[in-house]
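Below is how a single chain appears once it has passed through the pipeline. First comes the sequence as given, then the structure the pipeline wrote out for it. We keep one example in the README because the format questions we get most often are answered faster by looking than by reading.
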Amino acid sequence: MATTLEHLPDEIFFEIFEYIPMKNLYRSFSRLNHRINSILSSIQPRLALQCIQPNEIHDPSMMFFANRIRKLSIWHSNSLNLIHFSNIRSLELEHPTIEQLNEIRPHIIPQLEYLRINNNNTRLPGNVFYELCHSIFSGEFSYLHTCILNNIQFNCQWSILSCKLRSIQIDVKNCQDLSYLFDICPELIRLKVMLDDEYFNFHYSNTYQRLCRLDLYLRINNWSCKELESLLIVMPNLKYLSIQTPFAQRSQMTVESLANVLRKCTPKLESFFINTIFKEQSSTDDIHQLHPLFKFIHVVQAVTTRADHITISSKISR
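Resulting structure:
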């Protein structure tokens, strides 16, 4: 006896539908019959949606699967109507607008775990982004554990806030904002930060025990190991450290002083990377002997300054 599509068990449909793109799935199978519609309505795929064109997010297929989409990446500046995507875990905004930021609220997307807002090239009214950051650092998003945020202006009054973020990538214009961040986010494990300040002026009276990974990009002139030590001394459990500076920027640090700071402040360090211009030049053989993690050294001479830009790492850079 011939077998038709309707004779297949539901499990086969679930298996087949996993390999069909969302739009094709909706256009090919929706409204065929009551049973197929029921199967489409009951599947729980971990759907990821990237919207580049403004009209894509309002496509009928998107609306049909909206409450089952887990990851949403938006590359346009139109409104989102996030109320339809109430179960997303990951949200990325490449060209954020006031309207889009106003939709990021805990009662609209309560399951949010990951948030990335790329506002490097976007001018937003301070109060809109400020209010969103306040909601994040107040712990209003119960499941949010990872954030990538740019151009944050911390308020000293935020030190009374608290959240459960475990990983954050930010850029700050004031080194002291880091102390506010440590108070607000006591459970941080990973921090990636660009410091863009005139001076490396950091003070923090407590010890930050949980942080295991620190990625630093320093746009600060004439910083030395003394300033670096003031930061690393509060992170005794650090296992991964990366430090980078702009190509033509010179530090007031020697390789020897760097090795001393690492031995003093980071006894549990397992992985290390730095790319900068040191105050004094050292031979490759000498650098190898200064610290167990100074395993791979690469030297590039800057054309404009004729200074040696040195990369030191514990692993081969790829």
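Residues 10-45 form one domain.

See the next section for the split statistics.
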